[in-house]
Sterol 24-C-methyltransferase (Phycomyces blakesleeanus), 375 residues
Amino acid sequence: MTQSTVSAVNSEDIAFARALHGEKIKSGLIANLKSKNADVHNVATDTYLKMWKKSDVETKEDEKKRLGNYTQLVNSYYNLATDFYEYGWGTSFHFCRYYPGEEFFRAIARHEHFLAANIGIKKGMKVLDVGCGVGGPAREIAHFTGANIVGLNNNAYQIERAFHYAAKEGLADQTDFVKGNFMEIPFEENSYDAVYAIEATCHAPTFEGVYGEIFRVLKPGGSFGCYEWCMSDDYDENNAQHREIAHGIERGNGIPKMRPIGECLQALKNVGFEIEIHQDLAAMGDPIHWFYPLEGDLRKCQTVRDVLTTLAMTKAGRFTTTNMCRVLEAVGLAPKGTVETQSFLEVAADALVAGAQKNLFTPMFFFVAKKPATA
Ligand SMILES: CC(C)=CCC[C@@H](C)[C@H]1CC[C@H]2C3=C(CC[C@]12C)[C@@]1(C)CC[C@H](O)C[C@@H]1CC3
C-alpha cells in the first residue's frame, strides 16, 4: 500500500470508530453500550458475523476470505468486544500462569514482567508493543522498567483508550500509541531496541508477514519476545472434533486461522531470527491452570478478592451478563447486536477451555528471538 492509501484507510477507521463509540471516553460496560450509535453498531456486527457461517460446513474458501479480509475481521471484532473485555477482564488482554495463592491481577502483571525481563528491557530503551490493545501491558512494563514504550494497534477505539489510561497513570511522556497495521509497520528499519507481542500476532494472516516486519524495525542485536496463540503438536487438522475446537477459537476471538507451533518457529527462522528460547508455558504442569477463570468454577479462585474479580468470567457470571444484555437491548439502552457479541464471546470461552483441557491449544507459546548483530 502506498503512504496515501495507508493514511486514507486509517482516517476511515478512525471516523468509523468515533461514529460507533462516540467522542468521549466512558468507563463501565453499561455506559459504553449506551453511548454506541445503533446503526454503526449494526454495520460492525454484520461485518463480523458475515465472516462466519453458523451451521453450514466450513470450506477452505471461507477461510481464504477471512485471511484476505483480516483487517476488517480483526477491527470489527475489537470494535464489538473491547468493552466486554474491559468489563470482564481488565485492561491487559491476555492470559497468564498462576502460582497457588496468587491473585489474578498480580499474576497478569507478573506475566508481563517475565517477558520484559527475558528480552532485557531497561530504562531509557525504545520498545515496541505489537498489538497493544488498550495498553495494559505497555503501562505495566513502562512502570516496571522505565523504558519508553510505543504501542501499535490497528483498532482506533483501543488506541484512544490506550492514550486515556496512560495519561491517567502519568505515563503520557513515557508511552505513545500509534494506529497501524502490523503487517506493514509504519516505522523505519532498525529503530527499536526491543519488541514484544502479547497474544496479538495470531490475528495476522501469516506469522511470516508480521514477524518479518518486526525483524525489519528491530535494531541488529535486539530481541523480540512473544506469547503466541498456537495449536499444539497434539492437534490434528483432519480430526473433526479438533477442527471444531480450533474453529470456535477462531470465531470467538477474531482470528482468521489458528496455526500450529511448528509454523510459528519456522516463520521466525524464515525471516532471519535466531531463536534463543522457546517453551510452551501452558504445558509446565502448573497446579492452577491458566484457563481457570473461564472454567466457571468459583472454588478454583485463589483469593476472596478473586471471587469478585473473576465473577463475570465464570459460567454463572456469563449467564447473568447475557440476560443483562438482553434486557438492555430490549429497552434500547444497548444497540442491537450486543447479545450476539456476548454470545460469540461465550463461544470463545468454551472453545478455549475445551482446547486447553484436551491439550490442543496454548495462548502462551513463549519465545525470545534475536535479530543477529550482523543483520
Ligand atoms: C483474542 C486474543 C488473541 C486475546 C485475548 C485473550 C483474553 C483476554 C480473552 C479471550 C476470551 C475473552 C473473554 C472475556 C474476556 C477476555 C477474554 C478472556 C469475557 C470473560 C469478558 C466478559 C464476557 O461477558 C464473557 C467473556 C468470555 C470471553
Q: What stands out?
A: The domain at 1-375 is CATH 3.40.50.150 (Rossmann fold). Residues 84-85, 87-89, 93-94, 199, 202, 229, 253, 312-313, 318, 321, 342, 345, 348-349 surround LGRKZMXR (CB under 6 Å).
